[in-house]
Design a protein that fits this description.
2 copies of one chain form a homodimer. Chain A has about 450 residues and is an alpha+beta fold. Chain A has 14 helices and 18 strands.
Chain lengths: ~450, ~450
């Protein structure tokens, strides 16, 4: 438990925390926009100055792109080390005309602060910075060493950080990684995300005749690339949503009874979920619940199809080519490389005569599962309950955050994904927001977290 | 046999025939181009004047679009009546920079005349006009009555002619329809086309979630419309090219042994055909030869696919929608309406749960087969052999010419498709051409045709 006077200090500083957040949000750090290179850099400078002003040792580490901000509190011998990861860059803001207030003019309405980056990720990572600075300002020593790694390229793929990570392993050495860049399960129901799915993405192209052919003069004697592609995709996944690629499911770690029970207890029905996305019925492998399918089972998805005539009306051709964007979500312990090999072999096997296959692999990353019995998980759960007044539920997330898996692998550390946001925060959309009450609860939970981690013995 | 002095007259007039053709080709009668309405009309006027100048009774019949030219020689009691159909409109000329000489500046190179409309169809229909005018100029009576119907909207679908056809049945009454708007089997090998495939076209749309969904957060619990579409298409046609729609093949008239034998004797190998279109192997139902598949078997083709992300790179979504353009080629005696009904019922039956189907029918027309034992077929064969020095082969064509089926139905007349062109004439492409030697042989064959048809008794 953090000292009582720290909690009082957090309450007294609430206004200042909001002013800090607004100041940071005003900097339009759109990392994908070449016209915003200086502003993105400035957002990094802002957080570096903030940390330095609080007494931390800060380095700006240059990369091929936007710099990394690394900062650290003093070592605490015998205590665990926590690494806070976050990012100071934000998504683009188009379509601008859909914003009620300007994306870089933070405004408070109905208890929410509206601005690009409010929840993703400036508002969330700032909770940890404020908790540490507030703690240091009490004069009491922090119970653990806390490091910060705040990057400026999360929204453009983190390629430069990924490349540098192994070389920074010693500097980043830690026992637990703390990331607040996700959501609670629902308003009033905080959550810890202990699992992420991995990903593997592909582009597939089927080439037939050297040019589009007249379907009357040639049709019937030529393998149609569009039909061939449909047949190959259909061979890969059956009507029950079962992927037919040999070995695809072999390495999937099954859900434990504990996990199935936890998922079953989460509020929300399939009918509500179907209605929220506008479908007449849900799809997929009916041996699993919808939540189990979204969080713990791998998928085969077609993300795009392109072939032949796409305009109005009719054009009676055998198209020369057809292509698909395909992606898998993977789960522990599926190996992306092995699964990609199996997929490529399968598609070569089911390729009809008369057409050629070009199979291109894009990016891939494995899934992630934190140990539910990790003492850091317990520490986080208690810290959240202390600050939010409600114990967090343990959830997984169907999406993929490749850098998290890399942290686990390179740093051999547990990862705590502690989202203070909400699913309707409009991250990546117009009118991004963050609930200010959750911002302050997040700061308190962070302060409590350092105390709870301090109780974990270094050897666990 | 046409009178000897007619053949001499045709030879003497060869230069004039070419001048006539060039004059007509210089009129840019692009029926699809609103800027060319007057020129298209002028090309109709040109042929009307040509026929009137030769002594025929000519009418220009106004339509909602470009006018029909109708002309007739005097009735010959007791003799059959022939109706020549053709068109004075031409295809667009883009890309202009690929033409060696201007599309409306006819030039002769290597024995070919190059211009838009040279083979499709001004050059070909003019053979019949010149033969009739030359015959009339001898002072000898024509052995049969010959009518001409030359339209200006063939390249835009003949909709106005189709609408008027039934009301013109009496005026167009005939025993045989003669159309030269196709090709010989190969250079030096004339052909009579006695069969055409029909067509039915569709647009199919599969709708899933109300918007594209994040494939991580939602994938696995939602039916993917792109996958659903692939599975439905794959259910409709198997790996052997066999269409799986119930009843699809029931009404297909089988090839007679005579026809199979005729097709088997045509020159050309499957390997040459595959090489010409650039495929590693041919496709389709291997119980039939490639020519049999192209000319006498129905097809299921996907003409276009559209879904989700089509740009560069990766976008990991479950797309909200997927759509396909699908068309069949049909053969006698498949009924387009019945086949379309069966297809719609089948697609509704194989529609996966969780998505919605919008099934739209476009146009449809049945296939056509002329009687191989028709005396007019024999007459045409003899006329062609007399003029070309080679007996024609009997071929079918995989494409569809809906107006031909309508002539058969409305006029209850045999159809003779006598193509003087070649497959490499670049109809619809830059550098359209027509071999001048074939132009003159076509005029001679046409003159012989009137004589041969005159020998056919009216009752046959």
């Amino acid at each position: 438990m953090a000292p009582n006077d720290l909690m009082q200090r957090l309450q007294a500083s609430a206004g200042q925390f909001e002013e800090d957040l607004k100041e940071w949000l005003r900097i339009p750090s759109i990392s994908s926009d070449p016209a915003r290179i200086q502003e993105t850099h400035a957002a990094g400078q802002w957080v570096a100055e903030k940390l330095r002003g609080g007494g931390l040792a800060v380095e700006m580490i240059e990369t091929a792109g936007h710099p990394l901000i690394f900062a650290s509190t003093p070592p605490v011998p015998g205590a665990p080390i926590a690494l806070v990861y976050g990012h100071y860059d934000v998504q683009p803001v188009e379509p601008l005309d859909q914003w009620i207030s300007g994306p870089f003019d933070p405004q408070v309405r109905d208890g929410n602060i509206y601005a690009r980056g409010a929840t993703d990720d400036k508002g969330q990572v700032l909770t940890h910075i404020e908790s540490v600075l507030a703690w240091l300002a009490t004069g009491e020593p922090l119970p653990i060493q806390i490091k910060f790694l705040i990057e400026g390229e999360e929204e453009v793929g983190s390629a430069n950080l990924e490349n540098l990570l192994a070389s920074m392993a010693e500097r980043l050495a830690c026992d637990v990684v703390v990331i607040s860049d996700s959501s609670q399960y629902a308003a009033g129901q905080p959550a810890i995300t202990y699992g992420l799915r991995g990903i593997a993405t592909f582009q597939v192209r089927i080439d037939g005749p050297k040019q589009d052919l007249h379907s009357g003069s040639f049709g019937g004697a030529v393998t149609n690339p569009a039909i061939a592609l449909c047949q190959m995709i259909s061979a890969a996944i059956d009507a029950n949503g079962q992927v037919q690629i040999p070995g695809f499911y072999d390495a999937c770690r099954p859900l434990s009874d504990l996990e199935r029970g936890q998922l079953a207890e989460l509020p929300g029905t399939d009918a509500e979920f179907a209605a929220s996305i506008g479908v007449p019925a849900l799809g997929g492998d009916q041996r699993f619940t919808a939540l189990e399918r979204r969080w713990s089972r791998p998928t085969f998805e077609v993300n795009g199809l392109t072939s032949g005539h796409q305009g109005d009306g009719v054009k009676t051709i055998v198209p020369a080519t057809a292509s698909a964007k395909i992606s898998f979500r993977l789960v522990p312990d599926q190996d992306p490389q092995q699964i990609s090999d199996a997929f490529e072999a399968f598609f070569n096997q089911v390729l009809p005569a008369g057409v050629r296959l070009t199979f291109t692999r894009d990016h891939a990353a494995p899934g992630m599962l934190s140990r539910l019995d990790s003492p850091f998980m317990t520490a986080a759960s208690q810290a959240i309950e202390q600050a939010f007044g409600t114990a967090p539920v343990m959830i997984r997330e169907g999406g993929s955050i490749p850098i998290v898996t890399q942290f686990q692998q390179v740093l051999d550390a547990d990862c705590l994904l502690l989202g203070w946001g909400l699913n309707d925060d409009n991250a990546h959309s117009p009118n991004e927001k963050f609930c200010l009450a959750d911002f302050h609860k997040g700061i308190a939970a962070s302060a409590c977290l350092w105390a709870e981690i301090g109780k974990v013995s270094k050897s666990s």
